[in-house]
Structure formats: C-alpha cells, structure tokens
Here is the input.
Amino acid sequence: MTKRRMFLRMITASLLRRRSRMLIALLSIGIGATILAGLVTIYVDVPRQMGAQFRSFGANMLVLSDGEEGMTKDQMDKALESIPTDQLVGAAPYRYIRVDMTTRQQSFTAAGTDFAQITRTSPYFSVEGRYPEKSREILVGKEIAETIGIREGSGMELTWQPTAGNTEGDPSKDRQPGAVLSGSAEGWSGGAVYVTVKLDDSAKIASLTIDAGTQTPEIGGLAQTDEAFTRQFIGKALPMTLGEDVDALSGATVTSTAVVEALNTARNTQSTAAAKTMKYTVTGILTTGGEEESYVFMGLEDMAGLTGSDAVDVAELSVSASAEELEAYAEQITENADGVRARLVKRVTRSETAVLGKLQSLVFLVTAVVLILTMICVSTTMMAVVSERRREIGLRKALGASDGSIRAEFLGEGMFLGLLGGVLGAILGFVFAQIVSVNVFGSSITFQPLLLPAAVLVSMGVAALSCLQPIKRAVAIDPAIVLKDE
Amino acid sequence: MSLLELKNVSKIYGDLKALDNVNVHVDKGEWVAIMGPSGSGKSTMMNIIGCMDKPTLGEVLLDGVDIAKESSKKLTDIRRDKIGLIFQQFHMVNYLTAVENVMVSQYYHSMPDEQEALEALGRVGLRERAHHLPSQLSGGEQQRVCVARALINHPELILADEPTGNLDEANENIVLDLFAQLHAEGTTLIVVTHDPEVAEAAQRTIVLEHGKVAREVINENFEEQQKKWLARLIPGSKR
Ligand SMILES: Nc1ncnc2c1ncn2[C@@H]1O[C@H](COP(=O)(O)OP(=O)(O)O)[C@@H](O)[C@H]1O
Ligand SMILES: [Mg+2]
Here is the structure.
C-alpha cells in the first residue's frame, strides 16, 4: 500500500466514521456552496433575465432612412441582418402620413405598421377590442376615439391628400407648358410657405400666388403682397436661384429662400395621385399613455393602398442585448445597410445598464457575505474538531507525525469536505437558482456546465482557508499530552 | 553497550523539581522497570526519554546523541525512528480499525504494509479482530493493538508508561509475555509501573522518589524466569 492510499484511507475513515461533527462541517460548506452556486447562476443569468424584462418597456433601437424617400422593405431587412435572430425580439416598421376625416373636418396622423411586430416591440400597448387582422381594419388612439366619439366596430372614412412632400420622383417632369404646380417649404421659425404657379406655353411662370401667412406679417409676410418681389418671378423658368434669378425680399432672406425652394419643388397636383378616400372598420381603441393615443394605426398594405407606396419612415427595434452589443449592432447597420442608419434609444438603454449594474453588485455583495459566513462556520467547526481530536493529534505526533503530516491530514480532510460540499452545492445551487428564477423572473435557466468545477474549486478553496487557523492549533498540540494521566 | 544515559538530569517546574539530578544508565537490550509513588517524576522521565520533552538541566544521550539539545523537528525524527511507545490509556485513533491503527505507525515511519500489520496483530493474538474499531475491542485487546503498533517498526527502544495499569490479570500476563519475547529478540524495554509483579519481570528496577533515584534493584532470578517463559512460549501456542 502506498502512502497516498493510506492517507486517503485515513481521511475518508475520519469523515465516514466520525459522522456527526464532519456532517456539520459538510453541511455548512454545502449550504454555502449552494447559495454561492445559486447566486452566481443568477448573477450570470440576470442580464438575460432582466433583458427580457426590459424589453417590455419598448424599443431600444431605431432604424431610419437617410433620405427623404423613406426606407424600402429590402433596406429594412438588410439592416436587420446585422442583429442575431435570437436577440431580436421584434422590429416594427412605421410610416406616418396625415389623413383627413372629411365628414368631421378633422385631420390626424395615420401610422402604417405591422401589428404582429408591435405586440413584440411595444408590449405595453393596450388595446380595447382587438388588433386589426384583415385589410381595411384600423386601430384608433384613445384620444381620437374620445374627441370624435368612435368605438370599437365603428366605421371611419379617411382621405389622403397628396402634397408635395408625399410626391415621389423628379419635380422637373411636372414643369410642362400650361401646368399648375404647387409646393411648400419651411420658412421663418418652422412656419410653412405655400406657392402656386401657373406656367405659360413655354413653361415659364405666368402667374404666382404666395401664401406666407405663417411668417412675421411686417417682414416675411410681405412676400405675399409686395409686388416688386412677386413680379420678378414672372416670365422666369424653374428651377431658379435666389440672388441670381430673383432678389430676396429685403430683411426676409429666410422667407425668400423658402419661396424659391417651394417653387423649385412644386408639383403638378393634377398629375400626381388624386386624393384617395377609403372606408375602414375600427377594431380596437389603443391606450399607450403616450402620443400614439392621437394616431390612427393601419396595416402596411392598407397604407400602400392609400398612398401608392410601401416605403416606411422608421423601424422600431427591440433587441435583447447589452448596451455595448447594441452600440456595435447600430454601428454595423449604419455601415452595412445602404441608405439607412440606426441609433439607440438612449433613455431606455442607459436605464437598463444602470439597473443591471445595481442588481449585479447586490448579488456580488450577498455572495461575498455568504462566502465569509461560510468560512466562519467551517472554521469554527474545524476548530471544534481539532479540540475534540487533541488526543488523537497528540498520539499521531507521538507516533512520529511531523507538523507537515498533521497539516496535510487536516487540509486533506478540509479539501475533501470542500469537494463533497462543492458537488452538493452545485447541484442544490442550480435547483435554488431555478426556483428563484421561476418565482422572480418567471422563466427557467439552463445549467451552466462550468458551474460544477467552479463550485468545487471555490468550496475547496474556502474549506482550505477555513482550515488554516484550526491547523495552526493542531500543529501546536504537544505530543506529551498522551502521557498525561487523566 | 550503552543505549541511553541520563547525566545529572533535572526538570524543574517553578519551585518544583519533578526530576532532581537524575543519573540513569540503560544498556542495549536491557529490560528496566521504573517504579515510584505517584508524582515521583516517572512520566516526566518517560517524556524526556521519549523525545517529547526536554530536561531543564543535564544531558540525555540516546545512541550517543544528546537529545536535550536537539530541535523539536529532529526529536520527532528520532522518536519515529528509534522509539515505540505504549501508554496506560491505550490511545488508539478511534475511527480507524485495529490494523489501520498499526498501519498509522508504519505510515509515519516509512510505508504502510497491511500484510505486515496483520502479522504484528497475529503476534499479539488479534489477527481475527484486525478489522474491528477500538470501540469494539476490550481494554486488554486495545493495549495489545498498541503493543503491536509499538513493535511494528522494529524500534530499538520500547517505552511503556503503566502499560498494565488498566488491565486485568490475564491481559497483564499476555503483555508481559510479549515483553519477554521482545527482550529475547534484543529490544530494549523501559517499563514504568506501580505493580511490583510487573517490575519483577524486569532485569533491573529503578526506584524514583521525589524526583531522585532512591535505589536500584537487580532481579537475581531474571535468567531463570526468562528461560521458563521462553520454554512456555516456544511450543508455539498463541495466547
Ligand atoms: N507540565 C507540568 N507543569 C507543572 N508541574 C508538572 C508538570 N508535569 C508534571 N508536573 C509535576 O511533576 C511531578 C512529577 O510528575 P509525573 O512525572 O507525572 O509523576 P508520576 O508519573 O511519577 O506520577 C508532579 O508533582 C507533577 O505535578
Ligand atoms: Mg505518571
């Protein structure tokens, strides 16, 4: 028999045949390891768990079109390729237009979207009734529903009036002889300036009306009435340049620029799609607590049917990922996808990171406390074991055991306890974490295969550390104790 | 040839002289008994000879080495290599079986050898009880295991402090038979005892009183006794 086998035989005999005391030590290591393994499992899993929770607060990334034209379905799909499918919770496209409800002389924002995606990106949307399922079904925001007295099941007639902003293609195509063009542009402090021109037989400006009612009356507002200003446009061709073809109204460069821009982008209202009116059925009233309550929502197909285009303005993405990952994805999208860019909803991502950090440091703190408590408990037990075994230790020394042998034996017993406790802890800890996860987060976790070796290593380390003081005591025992009469 | 020599050895605790200028000489192969009333310093002397304590004054030569001057690590080595100890209280590792207890001594000395340990138990008549725990053995049986443990590494010197103090007559005789055998094999024996019968089995008795050697008694009948014993033992019946 080798020395090592005798060593193991002594250690296992000590643990197996002197059950009571060692069981306490094993129990404390086991419980410590259980709590530790459980907490670490939760610690590792918390970002995933909380990530899923956070996703119920709405989108955390936006994909937008670079240009005015909007984003096609292909562009959006290409952008989504940058995000791993298992992290993409949902991606809801939106297209916003103004629609009129002619019967009530009211106009609202209508949003075209994909309702299946909305339930994922904005799970907090609450619908009284149901989401639209078929074509010609719409969802109406609570605010609109209240002001015009609409309920689930009501009919609603909406008109889309194409405007310059809604027209696609090149405005120069519209500058035909005899055409009537109208356009608008943003003037002083965001107010719109509207123009209508009639072209003569050689496609030069024959007459011109300017509506500058939104501008400061005695400055830009004069663009509407100042004959010297309006007269200089007559007989000129489009497009034109301010300062070359025409002069600015004195003191109103912004308004003058807006007039020229409105003229340059003016479209033939007769040649673009005529105003279109459709009848819809309201399937539900939407409550969100936000501005969506003043919108009308319809499917993207209905939106295309109304406007003749299936481009979208923005896609709201809900991605279950860390702040760094999100940033990387956004960059990748902006780089890879053509004509679109992505940005993060900072308000959401920042608070997620903060909450996660706090949760993790809490778990970390509890872990440290448990570690220390376990150490104290094991150390105390081992201390009691040493004093209980004083005579045995004295005897071993009398038989010729060196200090090193005594150390090795107690450390061996401690590590063996750590090994058993660690295995026990890893298994029970996983069960513990599972119970916590199911009860707190409502979802289960997968077993981390690394947990077992990690728990065993940590509890063996803790056991070894806890044994240091008791071992010191053991080594100090005088072998002469065995000769003292009792 | 001299194995052990105590020269002017004193052990002083405060005002108390547990040993007071003791001179003792033991030859290789001798069987010596140490007697004396309680508190006369017998255990103190055993501790010093057993390398578990150091004298306050004096020299202790074991095999020519002055153990009074050695480090405690060196003393452990000497104890392990040269000395077999037997105690009044038996002292076994209570969670190890009889044979494992014997193997513990081998383990610290050199290599555990279960076969050899079983043979040693056979020699003390406990082959059949080798796999019993101390709690399953009688006091006499435990002490015999301790004798087996003390002799397993073939020490030059066996020190026994009141080895029969807790034994009945029958077990006392078994232990004395074993000592006689060990003596016949050339092992040096130093046996502390209260019991005149045990002392009479030895070649020579040193009597301690108040930490001093009061007198020495030579056993005139020793040769004869030993012959009788061996005659009884050699026909080979295990006790
Ligand atoms: N560690 C110690 N400290 C103080 N006094 C001691 C110590 N060990 C022994 N003594 C004393 O020394 C004397 C001799 O003790 P001991 O050698 O045990 O006697 P014996 O074994 O002959 O009964 C006793 O009076 C005892 O009280
Ligand atoms: Mg004594």
In short: Residues 50 and 126 of chain B are 27 Å apart (CA to CA). DSSP finds eight helices and ten strands in chain B.
